[in-house]
From TrEMBL:
One of its GO terms (biological process) is aerobic respiration. Keywords: Cell membrane, Membrane, NAD, Quinone, Translocase, Transmembrane, Transmembrane helix, Ubiquinone. It is found in: Cell membrane; Membrane. Residues 432-443 have a biased composition (Basic and acidic residues). One of its GO terms (cellular component) is plasma membrane. This is NADH-quinone oxidoreductase subunit H.
Length: 443
């Protein structure tokens, strides 16, 4: 263990009132600045990937574009549709934004430091169940989206709210399961304790399957491309915030980018060693993990995840909704449960002093067999039977074949145009001359 002091649960709750207020204000300012920088970085990176310039007018290199957008939203007319439940309509953005700020209070930025003579951890606060606070706040945040869709009196908004509730429930369960292996190895649910447990090795290396599951689920929790089904513009106009404008829409926008920062910071804390410097730096430089330097390592790791989010948005298309649900319920959850059983068995064998080499080899063989069987079953399910052919019709008659709406496993409404056996319907005439030829029987 290193010589510098690690924060413990006993170090929290002893700060004077002015230091507690200062920490809250610092976290609030940090999140607001992170949102402004995330918006600018996202536009510049996506612009470069799509061979565009991006924002370059407001301030040097367009750095003040996010601030200009905030002022523009504040000055826009606040439109409230008639017939809505105004109390719920106004409360929903607040319910969505406030939990996003609260979740960041348990993220550790560094070790114990001295602030005006008072030794304090570089963290808002810590709890014995700190990670569960993040899951609870994300669950409360989805109420804002659901209530916004329900109170808007719009079918598009209502469908967006329902999609969001189903999506968050599906991926929050898998996300919670990905944390279990971390809790088993760290022996605690407090974020400061989890960072201390990674003093020699990151959990992203030891628990790589849990890390992969978390990365997928945090995309589902953030409601961003490719999992932004609650606000799919193609079919829902704007989703749950279709009827919102001005500052109320800005609060939804703010909540989305704060959740982006919170999920990235949580991934850094649980899997990438938190505020600790990477191995080459920490081994060469003895003071890399002391004082205020750990804030730099924490920010570098967090922004790596934010860049990963932006990269996915520019590279991947939106998935279909049934594929989204299938991935959450039929892939991530069973895989996470099986992985937890393996990790728990491995830890139990190590605690009792048994050799774990044979267990690891046997578990790898079982996982390979299960994976092969699942691939074969999936291939067999994808083989669709041939289309039903109609009986030969009498000469001069056409027999209509009704399409199967459940042919691909996903209900599709039947088309309006009839399908005739062996006959492809001719498209409608496009010109007046062609229409006259059709009516006269030339064709």
């Amino acid at each position: 263990m290193d010589s510098y002091p690690y924060p413990t649960l006993a170090d929290f709750g002893k700060d004077p009132w002015w230091l507690m207020v200062g920490k809250c204000v610092a976290i609030f300012v940090f999140l607001v600045l992170t949102v402004l920088m995330s918006m600018w970085v996202e536009r510049r990176i996506i612009g470069r990937m799509q061979l565009r310039i991006g924002p370059n007018r407001c301030g040097p290199f367009g750095l003040l574009q996010g601030l200009a957008d905030g002022v523009k939203l504040a000055l826009k007319e606040d439109i409230v549709p008639s017939g809505v439940d105004k109390i719920v309509f106004w409360t929903a953005p607040v319910i969505s934004a406030i939990p996003a700020f609260i979740s960041f209070i348990i993220i550790p930025f560094g070790p114990m430091v001295s602030v005006f003579g008072h030794k304090t951890p570089l963290q808002g606060t810590d709890l014995p169940v700190a990670v569960l606070l993040v899951l609870a706040m994300s669950s409360i945040g989805v109420y804002g989206i659901v209530l916004a869709g329900w109170a808007s009196m719009s079918p598009y908004s209502l469908l967006g709210g329902l999609r969001s509730s189903a999506q968050v429930i599906s991926y929050e369960i898998a996300m919670g399961l990905s944390f279990v292996a971390v809790f088993l190895f760290a022996g605690t649910l407090s974020t400061s304790g989890i960072v201390a447990a990674q003093h020699d090795r990151w959990f992203a290396l030891m628990l790589f399957p849990s890390f992969v599951v978390y990365v997928i689920t945090m995309m589902g929790e953030s409601n961003r491309i490719p999992f932004d089904l609650p606000e799919g513009e193609g079919e829902l106009v704007g989703g749950f915030h279709t009827e919102y404008s001005s500052l109320k829409f800005a609060m939804f926008f703010l909540a989305e980018y704060i959740n982006l920062a919170t999920l990235s910071a949580l991934a850094t804390t649980l899997f990438l060693g938190g505020w600790r410097a990477p191995a080459p730096i920490s081994t060469v430089w003895a003071g890399a993990n002391e004082g205020w330097w750990p804030i730099l390592w924490f920010l570098v790791k967090m922004w790596m995840f934010i860049f990963f989010f932006i990269w996915l948005r520019a590279a991947l298309p939106r998935v279909r909704y049934d594929q989204l649900m299938k991935l959450g319920w039929k892939v991530l959850m069973p895989f996470s449960l099986g992985w937890i059983l393996l990790v728990a068995t491995f830890r139990a064998l190590r605690n009792e002093g048994h050799s774990s080499t044979g267990f690891v080899i046997g578990a790898a063989v079982l996982v390979a067999i299960a994976f092969g069987v699942s691939v074969v079953v999936d291939i067999l399910k994808r083989e669709k039977p041939g289309a039903k052919t109609a009986e030969p019709a009498e000469s001069g008659k056409r027999t209509a074949v009704k399409p199967d709406p459940f042919a691909g496993g996903f209900p599709v409404p039947p088309l309006d145009a009839p399908h005739y056996h062996g006959v492809v319907p001719r498209p409608a005439p496009e010109s007046v001359t062609e229409k006259k030829e059709v009516e006269s029987g030339i064709h």
